[in-house]
Automatic annotation (TrEMBL):
Single biological process term from Gene Ontology: acetate metabolic process
Protein name as catalogued: Acetate kinase
Record key words, sorted: ATP-binding, Cytoplasm, Kinase, Magnesium, Metal-binding, Nucleotide-binding, Transferase
Site-annotated residues for Transition state stabilizer: H179, R240
Cited Pfam families: Acetate_kinase (PF00871)
Organism: Agrococcus casei LMG 22410
Note accompanying the cofactor annotation: Mg(2+). Can also accept Mn(2+).
Annotated function: Catalyzes the formation of acetyl phosphate from acetate and ATP. Can also catalyze the reverse reaction.
Recorded name of the encoding gene: ackA
MF GO annotations: acetate kinase activity; ATP binding; magnesium ion binding
Binding, Mg(2+): N8, E387
Length: 400
C-alpha cells in the first residue's frame, strides 16, 4: 500500500497529508499555523480518529517537521510502515519553465526560488517548505507540483496581455493561471462522469473557493483560465477583486495617496466579498442578503454575474461545450450560487434541475452529482476537488 506525503507550505504555515495511492484515502493530515510567532498552533489527525493538538512555540518549518514526525510516532500511522514513495510539494508559480511535475534537485529548487518575483508571497514560502522537508525526509524523492503547469497549454492569444512586447518579455508578464492541479483533477473526473474520452471532451470548470478561478479545457488541455500573471485576476473572490481596470490603481495612487503596498493589500486582502459585504465567507454574505442588507445582495449579484460572463466567454472560445463542473468550498456547497450563476442560460443549452441542485433529487445530496436536467445539452455536475490526491498521483507518475 504505497503512500505519498503531500506538503503545502505557506510563509507561516505547514499543511500536510499522507495519501494512500491505491484508494486515494487520506491516512493522516495536519496543519501548523503561526510558525515563528510566540504561540503557534499545531494539529494532527489520522484516519482511525487519533488526534493531537498543541499550542506551542514553533520557530521555523524545520521545527514544524520535527513536531509532525513526532505525531506520526505517537498518534500514528507509523511512517516506517507507510511505504512512502515520495514527497509532493505544492508550488504556486512555475513560470513558463515548468509544464509538469518535476523531481526537485538543487537546480530545480533554485529555479523555483528564482521565480519569486512573480509570486513573492508564495514561492519563497514553498522553497522554505521544500528545504525543511528534504531535510526531514532525506531518503525520498521530492517532487514539485505546480499550480501553473496545467495552463502552459494556453495558446498565445489567451496568455498574452496587449502590453508593449519588450516590457512584457523583460518582466515575464503574461497570464500563467493557477489552481491547475484542481482544474486538471476535476476536468478529468468530469469526462469520466459524462462517459466521454478525455481527448474528445470540452469542459468548463468553476473552482469557487476563497480564491476562485474558471478554466476552459479542450481535450484534456487547459485553453483558457481566469486568473492571470497572479491569482488576483478574474472572478470575484473572498478577499480579492478579480478583474479590475488597471487605471483604478493609477487613480488611487495619484488621487488617494495609496502606496504600492496599500494597493496590494486593498486588492488582495480587503476586497471581493469581504470588501463589498463585510465577510469573505459565502455563508455570511448569503445570510446578510437574506436579512435584507443591500450591499450583500449587490455583492452576490456581482459575484454570480461575473461567473455567468466567463461561462459565456468560454463557450464562445471552446465552440462546443460538453460539460461544466462546480468545485471547491462555494462550488460544492452553495446551491444558490450555482443556480444564480447559470440562470438564464437555457438558450445556451444549460438547464439546471432545481431538485438535483438543491440535493433533493434522486441522488440526494451526494457530494458528486449531476445537477442539470435531462434535457440540458451541457451536463452540469458538482465534482469535489482533491488537490492532495492529484499531487500524490503526479508524484507517483514522476517517480515511477
Ligand atoms: P480555499 O480557497 O481556501 O481552499 P475552499 O475551497 O475551502 O477555500 O472554500 C472556502 C469557502 O467556501 C469559504 O470561505 C466559504 O465562502 C465557502 N463555503 C464553505 N462551505 C460552504 C457552505 N456550506 N455554503 C456556502 N459556502 C460555503
Amino acid at each position: 500500500m504505497s503512500t505519498v506525503f503531500v506538503v503545502n507550505a505557506g510563509s507561516s504555515s505547514l499543511k500536510y497529508q499522507l495519501v494512500e495511492l491505491a484508494s486515494g484515502a487520506s491516512l493522516a493530515s495536519g496543519l501548523i499555523e503561526r510558525i515563528g510567532q510566540v504561540r503557534s498552533s499545531a494539529k494532527h489527525k489520522n484516519a482511525a480518529g487519533g488526534e493531537a493538538q498543541e499550542e506551542l512555540h514553533i520557530q521555523d518549518h524545520a521545527q514544524a517537521f520535527g513536531w509532525v514526525l513526532r505525531q506520526f510516532d505517537a498518534v500514528g500511522p507509523s511512517l516506517d510502515d507507510a511505504d512512502m514513495i515520495g514527497v509532493g510539494h505544492r508550488v504556486v508559480q512555475g513560470g513558463s519553465r515548468f509544464d509538469r511535475a518535476t523531481i526537485i534537485d538543487g537546480r530545480v529548487q533554485d529555479q523555483i526560488e528564482a521565480l519569486s518575483p512573480l509570486a513573492p508571497l508564495h514561492n519563497p514560502a514553498n522553497v522554505v517548505g521544500i528545504r525543511a522537508a528534504r531535510a526531514a525526509f532525506a531518503n525520498l524523492p521530492h517532487v514539485a507540483v505546480f499550480d501553473t503547469a496545467f495552463h502552459l497549454t494556453l495558446p498565445p492569444a489567451a496568455y498574452t496581455y496587449a502590453l508593449d512586447r519588450s516590457v512584457a518579455e523583460e518582466h515575464r508578464v503574461r497570464k500563467y493561471g493557477f489552481h491547475g492541479t484542481s482544474h486538471q483533477f476535476v476536468s478529468r473526473r468530469l469526462a469520466e462522469l459524462v462517459g466521454k474520452p478525455l481527448g474528445e471532451t470540452n469542459s468548463i470548470v468553476l473552482h469557487l473557493g476563497n480564491g476562485s478561478s474558471a478554466c476552459a479545457v479542450r481535450g484534456g488541455e487547459s485553453v483558457e483560465t481566469s486568473m492571470g500573471m497572479t491569482p488576483l485576476a478574474g472572478l470575484v473572490m473572498g478577499t480579492r477583486t478579480g478583474d479590475i481596470d488597471a487605471s483604478v490603481l493609477l487613480h488611487l495612487a495619484r488621487n488617494g495617496g495609496y502606496s504600492i503596498d496599500d494597493l496590494d493589500t486593498l486588492l488582495n486582502k480587503r476586497s471581493g466579498l469581504l470588501g463589498m459585504a463585510g465577510s469573505n465567507d459565502m455563508r455570511d454574505v448569503r445570510a446578510s442578503a437574506g436579512a435584507g442588507v443591500e450591499a450583500a445582495r449587490v455583492a452576490l449579484e456581482t459575484y454570480t454575474y461575473r461567473i455567468r460572463g466567463v461561462v459565456g466567454q468560454y463557450m464562445a472560445q471552446l465552440g462546443r461545450t460538453d460539460a461544466l463542473a462546480f468545485t471547491a468550498g462555494v462550488g460544492e456547497n452553495s446551491a444558490e450560487t450555482r443556480a444564480e450563476s447559470l440562470a438564464g442560460l437555457e438558450s445556451f443549452g444549460i438547464v439546471i434541475d432545481a431538485d438535483r441542485n438543491a440535493g433533493t433529487g434522486p441522488d440526494g445530496d451526494a457530494k458528486e452529482r449531476r445537477i442539470s436536467a435531462d434535457e440540458s445539452a451541457i451536463a452540469v455536475w458538482v465534482v469535489p476537488t482533491n488537490e492532495e490526491l492529484e499531487i500524490a498521483q503526479q508524484v507517483a507518475a514522476v517517480v515511477a
